[in-house]
Amino acid sequence: MRSFRAENVSAFVKALLDCERERAQQAFAQLYNRYPIALTRDLAVAKKWIRDRARGSERYGLVASSKAMRLKPHAIDIRVAVDPVHYFLNERNDTRSSYYLEDAATEFQVQGLELDWVCVTWDADFRFGGSGWNYHDFRGDRWCNIGNPDRRVYLRNAYRVLLTRARQGMVVFIPPGDPNDPTRPPAFYDSTFNYLRELGIPEIK
């Protein structure tokens, strides 16, 4: 079962990131009955989804890209250092543990490690642009395009890591944005949300 999940999740995530819609849809359809994936614009709903599904000692937590600088309005600040020892090993009553769903571990902290259930918090650093991905870095008070090919590959791989950390299933939170905030207009997020939904991932509210 673990091998089935790992292989199929990897195939789905690869197709998703390669923008191969039909292949991603097929991979998702094969995967979903054994490995639930959900999509939401509401972080509270996402947290409830993974809490409700975790059984016994199954571990769950938030993850985010190290460039996800505009999740702060949702109380996710990736600049807060996460100690992987506390995050992965401490118990439910410890605010430093993944169970508390307060601190989001980045690709640096979760590389090579796994949780049972994961909430992937997706920011505007990596945006779907209709036919491919747009890459951004937040500098000062605005998002800037990433032109360097190596940095683009790194950001893409960061999301590959985040999307393959869950053993049992995952929920993807994509913020709704805020039309009154020039750093978080809905347009920065909507295309990514719509793309993932078109792949077959069900939305929860």
Please provide the count of β strands: 8
Molecular shape: globular
Order of helices and strands: HHEHEHEHEEEEHEH
Unreliable stretches covering 5 or more consecutive residues: none
- Termini, distance in Å? 29 Å
Strand content: 15-25%
Q: Helix- and strand-based class?
A: alpha/beta
Largest sheet: 5 strands, parallel
The tally of structural domains comes to 1
Structural Rg? 16 Å
What's the tally of helices?
7
The average pLDDT score comes to 95
As a percent range, the share of helical residues equals: 25-40%
If strands are numbered along the chain, what order do they take across the biggest sheet? 1-8-4-2-3
Write the layout of secondary structure elements.
Blueprint: H1 2-17, H2 21-31, E1 37-40, H3 43-53, E2 60-64, H4 84-89, E3 104-105, H5 107-110, E4 115-121, E5 126-128, E6 133-139, E7 142-145, H6 149-162, E8 166-173, H7 187-198
Parallel strand pairs: 1-8, 2-3, 2-4, 4-8
Antiparallel strand pairs: 5-6, 6-7
Helix pairs in contact: 1-2
